[in-house]
Write a structure and sequence with these properties.
Strand content: under 5%
Number of domains: 2
Number of strands: 0
Number of helices: 2
Order of helices and strands: HH
Distance between the termini: 152 Å
Structural class: mainly alpha
Radius of gyration: 46 Å
Shape: rod-shaped
Length: 109
């Protein structure tokens, strides 16, 4: 094999390697290419996610407001219960005093 044949063989091998590399690159880019429909799907999912996050935030705000209302209502109910219990306690004490007074009056007569 003389120098010219060696150069031609080397050039052919390098050209074949170049073609193999180019074909591999084309095949990989063809397989992994993002299509327009994929991008549309991603946009739609992003919009739905944004909408869901807004709804979640609104639900959290509503639940916080509702919790505050219920806490306030419970505090008012507890205050009313305490007042009613105090009134009942006073009424029982007064009833016992009246019974004792009536028994004393009946015993004195």
């Amino acid at each position: 094999m003389n120098g010219t044949e060696f150069i031609a063989a080397t050039a052919a091998i390098l050209f074949m390697a170049f073609l193999a590399g180019w074909f591999t690159h084309w095949l990989i880019s063809r397989i992994t290419r993002v299509t327009r429909s994929d991008m549309d799907d991603l946009d739609k999912m992003a919009q739905e996610l944004h909408h869901a996050e807004e709804e979640r935030d609104q639900a959290v705000i509503y639940m916080q407001q509702r919790e505050a209302e219920l806490t306030n209502k419970m505090a008012q109910t507890e205050a009313e219960l305490e007042a009613a219990m105090d009134g009942l306690r006073d009424a029982r004490r007064e009833t016992e005093e009246l019974r004792a007074y009536i028994e004393r009056v009946n015993q004195a007569s």
